[in-house]
## 1
Amino acid sequence: MALRLARASSQLARRAARDRYGDPRPWLLGSAPPVLLGSSPAAGGRRGFCSVRRFTAGDSSAAAAAAVSEDDETENGFTDGDQVLDFPGGKVSFEAEMNFLPESKGERINCYRVLDDDGQTISGSRFQEVSKEMALKMYSNMVTLQTMDTIFYEAQRQGRISFYLTSHGEEAINIASAAALSIEDLVLPQEFANQCFGNKMDYGKGRQMPIHYGSNRLNYFTVSSPIATQLPQAVGAAYSLKMDKKDACAITYFGDGGTSEGDFHAGLNFAAVMEAPVIFFCRNNGWAISTPTTEQFRSDGVVVRGQAYGIRGIRVDGNDALAVYSAVHAAREMAITEGRPILVEALTYRVGHHSTSDDSTKYRPVDEIEHWRTARDPISRYRKWVQGNDWWSDAEESELRKRVRQELLQAIQVAERAPKPPVSELFTDVYDQIPSNLNEQEQLLRDTIMKHPADYPTDVPI
């Protein structure tokens, strides 16, 4: 009964509207000119029905606007254009024009830079000053990372480790951004070697695949293979720092491919709403394995996406160590003092293959790789600046590279000779008391090993 009454009431209302304003259905079918709708207040200042006025194609837009303006006059002289919508989150002004936001602003967002391609400071550039000690420490670590990648990549090709990823062409991003966070704590090459070989000294006890490093001592969360899962996690960590009133922030690193994952958007929105002190650092190196950025998104890179979530951001030259250092230093200050998330997009290029399982020459031109390897090498550019300040010499360069190579080769030898974690370590460090189902799994594994000893590595203690 109630449903029939509601339907009858709705039909009467539609008939009354047709009698007063005309049948809207012919216009919906395209046989009548469009209409302009304007709301006008009902008696007593309350909002009433929408008034409808038809205009033909010959009517000028000025006449139409004037008619709507006249129709929308209120008793106190206000028009709809003068009013605002007190919407949750902020007041929104009205306008009579129908305006769609453009897909882009037309001009691309500029990229912050301090050093030109020749390692010279750009006139008028503003950057965070670095001491000689800091500058040399950054350079030494960039050379160490470059050399380590070369040696460990060769070790994988020799079958000594199972997998590796290089940072060729992106050394400035890794070292300079870390230097802006803390200059005291370093991840030593031996720790990386232990993790890659999965020996007993590995903090993860051999449970992770190579180059998935982590350190509780350095507040360095272990690398996770699933793409972009670390972003919401970083927001949670940052919010906990905020709740504890710590003078610190969280930073999470990800590539351009990670921005195509849902966790990227969830993480940014989460951080903005909670006002979490977190730095989202996007390493936009042009490629998500074999997928170029031109096939990933149409927006102006990544930094523009921060605005949609209410997050401040900056685009920086990822091959300029001073620019990266200055940008992250400023981002850290804002994140902590203002309690806000910051998005940093570093433009760079992945000179190396995605991994030892990849041959990037199959999907990108070799001359493009060579151009970025030589003309835009971040280490060479930064070295020119350091030498231009009379802080470095060719003799020191030769000695550094020789020493670093010896240290890395020794680290590999030590890691390779170190014993492997025993089988029992597979089931520890999760529960305080190992539950019965894990005990059963361990026993099943041991029984399988005893039945098929030839299929099990002999260097892992049972």
## 2
Amino acid sequence: MNQQQKQGGSDQPNQITINVVVNLPQSTLKIQVNINHDIPFDKFINGIKEQIFAQKMKAQYEETIEYLLENGSIIQSNEIRTLQILGFKNNCTLQVRLMLKGG
């Protein structure tokens, strides 16, 4: 059972692992998320943003965030289609690029 977990296996058929790479102006943050592929992107990304930001930082970046899936798709934060429909696959990578407002 431990071996399956190490290999990223899941007993939930709709569960996928997404590698989120957050490009900050001065650093890079990597987060791995195991999630149901039927969740809408906007709900998924709200959870990611909660992990990235402290409340006081959020206002600096809020309107200057780009989401880029490894297949080249740029996704808006208010996108309501599911992760599966948008092309998210198991172990795919989502690039999140944050820029300071006005910068």
## 3
Amino acid sequence: MKLILAIKLGVILGVYHGVLSNTDDGAVENSQQTILNEFNQQLAQLEERHQQERQRLVQQVKDRQVQQAKDRQGPHQSEILEEFNQQLAQLEVRHQQERQ
């Protein structure tokens, strides 16, 4: 990203130098402002894209960590509790049948 910014800055400065050698002072100020505005706009766009890409990568890492934690955890506690309750109910039924 720094390389891209350096290249764009070089191009802008080259254009700026060319403008300086071919125009009068009033036009130079307008050209300077135009070049600066364009540079700032491009820089803002690059920063926005960089931030979006960073957020996307951070979300991917978080999702991967959550999935890995789920994989290591095995069955969820609610599933284990449900299975335990089913087995307990079966034992109670058998116990009732044996009493009769």
## 4
Amino acid sequence: MSDVNDYYDRTAVAARVTAPPFAELVDRSQHRARRARKARLAGVAVLSLLTAGPLLALPGGSAPNTPVAAPSPSVRAWSSFDIMIEFYDTHFGVAQYPGESCGEGWLSVTQDGGKTWSELRAHPKIPDLSARTATPGEPACMRPAAMLTAPDTLVMAATMRQSQLAGGPAYISHDRGRNWREYQPQVRVADSVPAGVIPRWRCDEQRCKEEGLGWYDPVTGDWMVLKNQPPGANYISVTGAFDDSIWVDGSGPDGSGQFQLAVSHDRGRTWLDRTPKEDIDWLARAGSLTAFDGSTAYLYPMMDTTQPDPFSLYRTTDGGKTWLPAPAAQEFKDVVFVWTNRQGALNIADLTHHQHLSMDGGNTFADITSPVWGATHITGGLQGWPIDVAAADPVDMYLSDDGVTWQPVEIPYYQRS
């Protein structure tokens, strides 16, 4: 497997990372960290001198400035943990920034895979009608979250915890968040999931799972529910494969249910129950899945520091009918990420950032070096997290069409108004 290691070593990775290369990313990360430390030390002094002026972009941002009210010295800058990021595919994404008051916030969108970002755009203040409030007759609110339902379309629901969509308003924008329209979502039934869409449940509660897998229609904003749902009710995870197959797995929100697994090869029209018949003791408490296509997938346990057992990996190549162990994976410990790329290779990364690659379905592994620590599937590719960014500044990410060549993405930081 030396050829595999050579193909994925640091030099090779640098040649495959586009604008900027790997070495420049390391230097930029260190430079950003130094600037951030200096900014924190001088922040109060600088902010106290500011009057009404432009919104300041912090290190890592390339979005145009937008006039806003003068920042307050008592208000800190957005941190990476404040910002929610979602990519629809490898081109269209949205970064969301919370406001100081309840339900307030802004968003910035990209259409070129994070090379450039729009100005900050305010979104509607969304009430949380399921929460209690100290003021009678006045609904509380929650942190809003806009979902990309199409390249130009964003939907914001009243609350993701309501079992009935008709219980509260929602908002839709067809121009990437410039203008919003309030509407009342309807629930409609569909035969299959549109190409390029990864379905989801509206929330993680059991009532949402029973309501069924669905997605927001990008034209009407209605909630579309699959006519035929996966067998069982304990699912917690949806995985989209490279051939458009859909896998669902889980053992209930609290892990107390029986592990279940199902796959659809026709975009949700029909489902096959693929719950393993093999005796895999960790499935019920910690089973997770990653899939290459409708035939090849891998089962593995989520990291559990209380379990000293070696890492365990099972593979299917017949669509989940049978699952066979991959003994070579038992040499690893503290595994936190497992994913496949478009070439069918299997990646494993541990808590200490060590990475391993298998080109033969988990029979053998080679140590590799890559800018990406972990990755998940998105429409048309993968979204990855960097391995070399300081913990205080982890907002950068990567996008890839194939899981081999990665495009770095910098999410802009802003000074709160």
